[in-house]
Amino acid sequence: NGEKPGIYWIQEMRDGRVWFLSDKGRVYTFDGASWESFQLSDEFEDQPAARMVETANGDVWFARLEGLSRLQPNGTTTSYPINGGSSWFVPELLDGTILSVTPVEGSDQTELAVFNGSVWRNYSYGDIPILGAGLAEMADKRGGVWFWSRFQTKVHRLDHASERWRIYRVGNGLFGGTMGPNGRLWFYTEQGAVGF
Which of 38, 56, 70, 72 has the greatest number of CB atoms lying within 10 Å of its CB? Predict the structure, then answer.
């Protein structure tokens, strides 16, 4: 109908194409010269995808309102419903497992589900605070996942293997984080940058 879609997420893939996740539930791709689009054909078909990750084996995972969608290189799409809420993030951990972060409805806890390639396992790490608007995550090269929220004073790191959390103070006015090519993580605040 000519209406322009809103864009939730932009990511450059390994083949150089750029993928765009829209609020209309469609995925748009751009190779530098032409556009293509497709609809994820699974039980979440009408739901937009908020985040995505391209894994080492070529699969693409999408965070949806009621779970995760997995698009394989052969075009097959599989749905993975998650009880109790939507999937927020889908980082790939160091050992190739997929992590889904889901808020637990009616509580201040967050549920983590891990996919090892064939089955899902739900983890409960206790009282994990939902950090508010702008919650973000980043997987490091040591098997950990970092969580933070804009304007907070600290970041949380989950070590997947030991299921232990650590809290790091980074200063006032946290704006965001990034990973350098050597795997070192940097968080930037109104007071400067902090590296781990």
Answer: 70
Give the three-state DSSP class for 74. coil
| Per-10-residue mean pLDDT, the chain, length 196 | 73 91 85 90 72 84 80 86 62 64 60 66 54 62 79 82 82 85 88 90
- CA torsion sign for 77, 80, 86, 90 is negative
CA-CA-CA-CA torsion sign (176, 61, 145, 101): positive
What's residue 133's pLDDT?
44
Cα 107 from Cα 126, distance rounded (Å): 12
Interior angle at CA 188, CA 150 and CA 192, nearest 5? 125
Question: CB neighbours (10 Å) of residue 112?
Answer: 19
DSSP 141: T
52, 58 contact by CB (below 8 A): no
Burial 17-29 (b: 16+ CB within 10 A, else e): eebbbbeebebbe
Q: What is the pLDDT of residue 90?
A: 63
pLDDT computed for residue 9 by the predictor: 84
